[in-house]
Specification:
The protein contains three helices and 28 strands.
Length: 337
């Protein structure tokens, strides 16, 4: 074989290695990993063995591990002894079903490179007690932690922008959501109410300190739908002038709330925004509000004072502001006696 042929063969091999998808196995730390290679990067599709504490290898077959799971079934379902997993910084994607039904798993450490957690990735991991989502994660898939009944606390980093439907449904033991960035939390898109862990936890902390008097940071432009829904530990909310909109059901079910102050930058209050805030007695609404959605304050049966710092929005009716059966007697423009 001449030199030109050798170079051609090497070039073809390199091209095939970078373009093709093929499977291999390797034993690391007591587990046998089945993985695929594509573009010189490895994805773990299955692991078998009796190891209890596992650190996902940085490389397999000399290639960096960047993903876990084949997207359709649990990659670790045959690791019945597994209790803890550490995922290194090189892994970016935890795919759908990756650790589903690993009921003995009590601890998961996510590396700083993880950007997405797929649907059902940790569903049914009933032994998990806490999880910390690093700042690198931007999306959490539907039902990602559904049925994790032993989960008591969740810490969310600043990078998450979307959480899929039912991501935390059935997390009946959840008692606390800890945030590292309150402004980032306000911008998360929750696909449904069970996507928000607060719906189960009811309590919120910021960098380890429980939040009762919630002050939205200045600079936040909007508060997303269901952002603080059912956070019963809140007693007061102050919304700055930088906020222009309050999403639907943003504070619904916050039964411990007694007072709300809404800044003058807010132009719209979404439907059901404060629905069922039964302890709410007073609301101050800034001068910028032009629309209030249906049932925004419905079933706020303790509400006795609503003060507008500007003119009353046109078309305001009892269905979108006042509790059922109440009159406009408790409404007053600022300065009125």
């Amino acid at each position: 074989m001449n030199n030109g042929t050798c170079k051609m063969t090497a070039a073809i091999a390199t091209m095939l290695a970078s373009a093709s998808l093929w499977a291999a196995t390797e034993v690391v730390g007591g587990l046998t990993y089945t993985y695929t290679l594509s573009g010189g990067k490895a994805t773990i599709t299955q692991a078998t063995g009796e190891a209890t504490s596992v650190t996902i290898p940085d490389t397999l077959g000399g290639s960096p591990v960047v993903a876990i799971g084949n997207g359709s079934e649990s990659a670790f379902s045959e690791c019945g002894s597994l209790t803890s997993v550490t995922i290194p910084g090189g892994v970016t994607n935890i795919r759908n079903h990756a650790f589903r039904n690993c009921s003995g798993l009590t601890s998961v450490t996510l590396g700083s490179g993880v950007t997405s957690i797929g649907g059902y990735a940790f569903a049914g991991c009933t032994g998990l007690t806490s999880v910390t989502i690093p700042d690198s994660v931007t999306s959490i898939g539907g039902s990602a932690f559904s049925g994790c009944s032993g989960l008591t606390s969740v810490t969310l980093g600043s990078g998450v922008t979307s959480i899929g439907n039912s991501a935390f449904s059935g997390c009946t033991g959840l008692t606390l959501v800890n945030l590292t960035d309150l402004a980032a939390w306000c911008g998360i898109s929750f696909t449904d109410v069970n996507a928000n862990p607060l719906y189960c936890a009811r309590r919120l902390s910021l960098n380890g300190e429980e939040v009762t008097d919630l002050v939205i940071p200045d600079g936040v432009a909007s508060i997303g739908a269901s952002a603080f829904r059912s956070c019963t530990s809140l007693t007061s909310v102050t919304i700055p002038d930088s906020v222009t909109s309050i999403g639907g059901y943003a504070f619904a079910g916050c039964s411990g709330l007694t007072s709300v102050t809404i800044g003058s930058g807010v132009t719209s209050i979404g439907g059901g925004a404060f629905y069922g805030c039964s302890g709410l007695t007073s609301v101050t609404i800034g001068s910028g509000v032009t629309s209030i959605g249906s049932q925004a304050f419905y079933n706020c049966n303790g509400l006795t004072s609503v003060t507008f710092l500007g003119p009353l929005p046109q078309g305001l009716t009892g269905s979108n502001l006042l509790p059922s059966g109440r009159t406009f007697a408790c409404l007053r423009p600022f300065g009125a006696k």
